[in-house]
User: Fold ATP-binding cassette domain-containing protein from Microtetraspora fusca.
Amino acid sequence: MIEARELTKRYGHKAAVSGLDFRVEPGRVTGFLGPNGAGKSTTMRMILGLDLPSSGSVTVNGRRYQGMVWPLYEIGALLDARAVHPGRSAYNHLHSLAAANGIPRSRVDVVLEQVGLTAVARKRVGGFSLGMSQRLGIAGALLGDPGILLFDEPVNGLDPDGILWIRTLMRSLAAEGRTVLVSSHLMSEMALTADHLLVIGEGRLLADMSLDELIARDATDRVEVRAVDHHRLAGELRTLGGEVTLEPDGTLLVVGVDSATIGELAAAQGHVLHQLRDVTSSLEEAYFRLTEDSVVYRAPVPA
Ligand SMILES: Nc1ncnc2c1ncn2[C@@H]1O[C@H](COP(=O)(O)OP(=O)(O)OP(=O)(O)O)[C@@H](O)[C@H]1O
Assistant:
């Protein structure tokens, strides 16, 4: 388990992370979300002892990372997959990591097999594709067979096969009872991978809840209707108390009247419908609404 208490990091006058309180529990994948500059990497670096908190604390299995004798047995991390000496082979890279951390050499073959790099183990890392480098980074994280794993943007730049592989790996690590914390900007991927979410904005905790709860909290039940005479139908739905938005393509978005009622009204009034469907909120929509006030870097939307 990872536990942060009032975790704060200031750079000069600016707080990158402000009073974060959270627990990352075992047995599930916890997604770590937030806009650019929200403080995700800074938090991960503090968990791993690469940065010291200005105040507050963060512990791994109840202890600070700096106090661990052999940390790779407790927590493994993928932060920057390209941060590997390019002239080394995958095998040598993992072997030296194992040797420096008191991990038996036999684990190197095990993790190479686990990430599918056995066939290229003797090749120079400098010639690896991004996907192969990510796999090597993950092999390094798994080397000590730790109970806690941290992945910073693990699917960045990966092809669909690579993304599916990482998703499956994370789910199986969590199913084995491990603690898995993963940051990502890909909402559709997070919706498929994470059970629980921590959302931060401008260094502050915005949400700490299950994926289902976050989506349900934001949900506004809407119905999408396409009708031949959409202007007449829109008027009739407004008379029923519906809030109706007319999209440029003629689609009506209706809040406040359910799809069964709309279907019955359409039949009674002789409307020809081309579409009638319930729309549920996605994680992406819930995320946008949650973080809209804390986006630091925002470009103007093209007209
Ligand atoms: N070494 C540093 N010195 C000064 N400011 C820093 C340093 N590291 C991070 N920051 C600032 O702290 C804030 C949080 O940055 P951080 O990289 O943790 O965000 P992030 O959520 O990981 O962003 P991204 O999604 O873009 O990776 C940013 O405003 C960043 O500019």
About this structure: Residues 11, 16, 34, 36-42 surround adenosine-5'-triphosphate (CB under 6 Å). The mean pLDDT is 92. The chain has two domains: 2-217, 220-279.
